[in-house]
Design brief:
Length: 233
């Protein structure tokens, strides 16, 4: 579990967080939805020790982090396999897991392909595979599906759900996409404008493998979230 306690963060006289608290439970997907400028990126930077200039406590026992960003951060001119082995110390022990993960993400046939020859969606699948295969305790995902078209995004999300059903991971997902939040999240936090607080927390009590985009439950949740996102309070 990762705990943020009594966090205060400012940039000169701009107070971004003013006694902010958040818990990221182990083995769950915690989603942050919030307006532009509410501090999502800053929070991720503080969680990953890139920004240490704050008051309060961040209790984080995870030793290894991995990241999935909107733009892929893969090694160019290397194969898919090279990119995955890059984050592993003893890749020999991971061969089965690599194949299984690539297969679920539908890119097993690209294993020995040069990254440069892959489409944007395929590269994003490689980024997800790499984060999943690496022995990290905590995966931070910053708008990982943003640049993808709707159909591709939904397909990758469903493949990603298959991975999560196989193996629970502690994930923090930051997104502006309400449907993505509902399909992947266990807990959804909606941020206010600064000074940022959590306006609303929703638990998604629908089995991950039963999250159908057209189902009434999903549509009801979407409506509820839009209500909070649109309220100025
Ligand atoms: N280095 C910095 N110096 C001054 N102000 C900053 C700095 N970094 C962030 N801010 C301010 O802090 C606020 C939060 O920024 P942040 O990038 O964390 O928001 P965000 O929620 O990730 O936004 P978006 O959804 O647009 O990516 C913004 O008002 C931003 O201008």
């Amino acid at each position: 579990m990762i705990k943020i306690k009594n966090l205060y963060k400012n940039f000169n006289d701009f107070q971004l967080f003013d006694n902010f608290n958040l818990i990221i439970p182990k083995g769950k997907v915690t989603v942050i939805l919030g307006p532009s400028g509410s501090g999502k990126t800053t929070l991720m930077r503080m969680l990953s020790n890139l920004d240490k200039d704050f008051k309060g406590e961040i209790i984080n026992n995870s030793n290894i982090f991995s990241y999935v960003f909107q733009e892929d951060r893969l090694l160019p001119n290397k194969t898919v396999l090279d990119n995955i082995e890059f984050v592993l110390n003893d890749s020999e022990n991971y061969l089965e897991k690599i194949d299984m993960t690539l297969s679920i993400l539908e890119i097993l046939d690209k294993k020995n392909e040069n990254i440069n020859n892959l489409s944007g969606g395929q590269k994003q699948r490689v980024s997800i595979a790499r984060a999943f295969i690496s022995p990290s305790d905590f995966i931070i995902m910053d708008e990982p599906f943003k640049s993808l078209d709707f159909e591709l995004k939904i397909n990758i999300i469903y493949d990603f759900i298959k991975l999560l059903v196989q193996e629970k991971k502690t994930i923090l997902l930051v997104t502006h996409d309400v449907l993505e939040a509902i399909l992947l999240g266990d807990i959804i936090h909606i941020f206010s404008k600064p000074p940022t607080i959590i306006k609303k927390t929703l638990n998604v009590d629908i089995n991950k493998s039963e999250r159908e985009i057209y189902s009434n439950k999903i549509i009801e949740l979407e409506k509820e979230i839009y209500k909070y996102l649109c309220s100025t309070k």
